[in-house]
Amino acid sequence: KGEYVGSFVPFGYRKAPQDKNRLLVDDDAAEVVTLIFGMYKDGFPILKIARRLNTSGIPTPMEYKRMQGVRFETAFRTKERPEWEYVTVKRILSNIVYTGVLIQGRRGTPNHKVRVTRPKDEADWVRIENAHEPIISCTDFEAVAELMRRDMRCAGDSEKHDLFSGYLFCGDCQNTMIRKT
Prior knowledge:
This protein has 181 residues and is an alpha+beta fold. It has helices at residues 27-41, 46-55, 61-67, 86-94, 138-150, and strands spanning 13-15, 23-25, 102-104, 107-108, 118-119, 126-128. The strands form three sheets. The protein has a two-stranded antiparallel ribbon with strand order 1-2. The chain has a two-stranded antiparallel ribbon with strand order 3-6.
């Protein structure tokens, strides 16, 4: 049916007031999502995007939810104010929900007697196209996904990135070539 059944909506969306299972674009947060995708397409590394968002004072998804009055708690309380992290930006860049596609049934139980859920095979997932308004075009999402697949740079503070990272492959085993100095 394409109804959203999660507790918390992805950053960039909000639940419809009359239908809590329908996603609507949250314009302010969607602007940040668009900015993140644009920066990555322009060649910014994920860590640099996170740092730029922090220095610009843009609220993190958790902080934004709290500002909207959503009761959102986490066990991670290491900083006074939540900061953008590498994993937060990468999760946004990797989430197909921003194209209007809803994926459901990723986890399940083998039968009614087992309570523990387990990941399902990707072939068993339910994929609903055009479930809600997209924030990112499919073309842009695929371009970013391809860039992420090819990006073999090390995460962290290293500013030295090899020109051929993700483009050179071994002729024998087809693995990516790595430059070691």
